[in-house]
Write a structure and sequence with these properties.
The two termini are about 40 Å apart. The longest helix has 23 residues, at about 1-25. The strands form 2 sheets. Strands 1, 2, 3, 4, 5, 8, 9, 10, 11 and 12 form a 10-stranded mixed β-sheet that branches. A two-stranded antiparallel sheet has the order 6-7. A hairpin with a 5-residue loop joins strand 6 and strand 7 (about 255). It has about 450 residues and is of the alpha+beta class. Helix 5 (about 160-170) packs antiparallel against helix 6, helix 7 (about 205-215) packs across helix 12 (about 365-375) and helix 11 packs across helix 12 (about 365-375). The protein has 15 helices and 12 strands. The protein has a domain at about 35-155 and about 290-445: Thiolase/Chalcone synthase (Peroxisomal Thiolase, Chain A, domain 1, 3-Layer(aba) Sandwich). Belongs to the thiolase-like superfamily. Thiolase family. Pathway: Lipid metabolism; fatty acid beta-oxidation. It catalyses: tetradecanoyl-CoA + acetyl-CoA = 3-oxohexadecanoyl-CoA + CoA; an acyl-CoA + acetyl-CoA = a 3-oxoacyl-CoA + CoA; decanoyl-CoA + acetyl-CoA = 3-oxododecanoyl-CoA + CoA; octanoyl-CoA + acetyl-CoA = 3-oxodecanoyl-CoA + CoA.
Length: about 450
């Protein structure tokens, strides 16, 4: 009888084990569709602008990320078919920063490279462009990445001064030159400073975030609590060695940098002392609950699964369905995640409960909280539901780790891959808002361990 009972228990265990195995093997692979994988992702430490990177140029950071990727993967430099980088505020001397960084990192000059810009989802666009090239059979291995360098942004002369200077360059006689010089007025010397503002509405993003938070009833306390959560989780992840995409970088004539320097857990009392940064005196967006100006670069190696395995790589994750969305840049500027999430879930045939890991871009705490409230609304998100906080941005986010505009997308995707490995999940979801009222969402599937 005992033997019979043991046999029954063993059969029951085998049945349960096979059931679990079957469930965990559910995949988004489709017949006839090429599997595309994330092999590796790296980034330079993200630093507050004006700190250790201050004397560099954007391509220096991008080059460091590319060299870090080469070092970590050991991929032969001539095995890469294409390189794509995202950036937002371009340095005019290196407008195709992808090409300059690739040459600087030692890639073959036979590898084409181009730069894309799509505000805060520029490196998301770089990655999905890579996916498209591989899916189309044009390439087997593409490096995508992003860079932003806010320590030194282009500051222009006024338009009148520029016109005068261009005319001076064309002047043929001394008289013409003297006449043009004499036309210069003091007002012409006033520079044009760049601003994080919408061209179509002339409104700064912080101002939009403040209005969005007000529209969805997000309080100052809620925003400060979320920001404190982000910094606290980031510090914990940093201390526990979870931010394994960060590479050390020897800054010329400076120190070796090996970790992000914007992670600063505070207290609710300290944060409450800060004044509104945009809408004064009654706004709720402050320096403490906003992402800060950041310098940094990221890079990822994306390949067809077939090529990756043939070269002996163990991929980190599958890159599956993705969508781009766009809406009114005045009243819905930062609602990209709300519009993108239900669409990408529908494409993938998944529900919110299927997602194990969420990584959303944190532009402002008010923006995140407004999106979470909107996603719970029938009117906005087809009642898709809200991501559970126990799965949401558990290693910090842009508020704490930093947000180099062009580089954040690769950080989000690499973090999802690492969290899926660490937590044993199957599916992850990345979502981000961007200037222009645009947004991106992508489903990532864990690679079998």
């Amino acid at each position: 009888r005992l033997a019979h009972s043991c046999q029954s228990l063993l059969l029951l265990y085998c049945f349960l084990f096979l059931s679990v195995q079957t469930k965990s093997k559910k995949t988004l692979a489709r017949p006839g569709v090429k599997n595309i994988v994330l092999v590796e992702g790296v980034r330079t430490p993200f630093l507050l602008s004006g700190t250790t990177y201050a004397d560099l140029m954007p391509h220096d950071l991008a080059r460091a990320a590319l060299q870090g990727l080469l070092h970590k993967t050991g991929i032969p430099k001539d095995a890469v078919d294409y390189i794509i980088y995202g950036t937002v505020i371009q340095e005019v001397k290196t407008s195709n920063v992808a090409r300059e960084a690739a040459l600087g990192a030692g890639f073959s000059d036979k590898i084409p490279a181009h730069t894309v810009t799509m505000a805060c989802i520029s490196s998301n666009q770089a990655m999905t462009s890579a996916v498209g090239l591989i899916a189309a059979g044009q390439c087997d291995a593409v490096v995508a990445g992003g860079v932003e360098f806010m320590s030194d942004v282009p500051i222009r002369h006024s338009r009148k001064m520029r016109k005068t200077m261009l005319s001076l360059n064309r002047a043929k006689t001394l008289g013409q030159r003297l006449s043009l010089i004499g036309s210069i007025r003091l007002a012409h010397l006033s520079p044009e400073l760049p601003a994080v503002a919408e061209f179509s509405t002339a409104e700064t993003m912080g101002h939009s975030a403040d209005r969005l938070a007000a529209a969805f009833g997000v309080s100052r306390v809620e925003q400060d609590e979320f920001a404190l959560r982000s910094h606290t989780l980031a510090k914990k992840a940093q201390d526990n060695g979870l931010l394994q995409d960060v590479i050390s970088f020897k800054v010329p004539n400076r120190d070796i940098v090996s970790k992000d320097n914007g992670i600063r857990p505070s207290s609710m009392e300290q944060m409450a002392k800060l004044k509104p940064a945009f809408i004064k005196p009654h706004g709720t967006v402050t320096a403490a609950n906003s992402s800060f100006l950041t310098d940094g670069a990221s890079a990822v190696l994306i390949m067809s699964e077939e090529k990756a395995l043939a070269m002996g790589y163990k991929p980190k994750a599958y890159l599956r369905d993705f969508v781009y969305v766009s809406q009114d840049p005045k009243d819905q500027l930062l609602l990209g995640p709300t519009y993108g999430t239900p669409k990408v879930l529908e494409r993938a045939g998944l529900s919110m409960s299927d997602i194990d890991v969420f990584e959303f871009h944190e532009a402002f705490a008010g923006q995140i909280m407004a999106n979470l409230k909107a996603m719970d609304s029938d009117w906005f998100a087809a009642d898709v539901g809200t991501p559970p906080m126990e799965k949401f941005n558990l290693w910090g986010g842009s508020l704490s780790l930093g947000h180099p505009f062009g580089a954040t997308g690769c950080r989000l995707v690499t973090t999802v891959a690492h969290r899926l490995q660490k937590e044993g999940g199957q599916y992850g979801l990345v979502a981000a808002c961007a200037a222009g009222g645009q947004g991106h969402a992508m489903v990532i599937e864990a690679y079998p361990q």
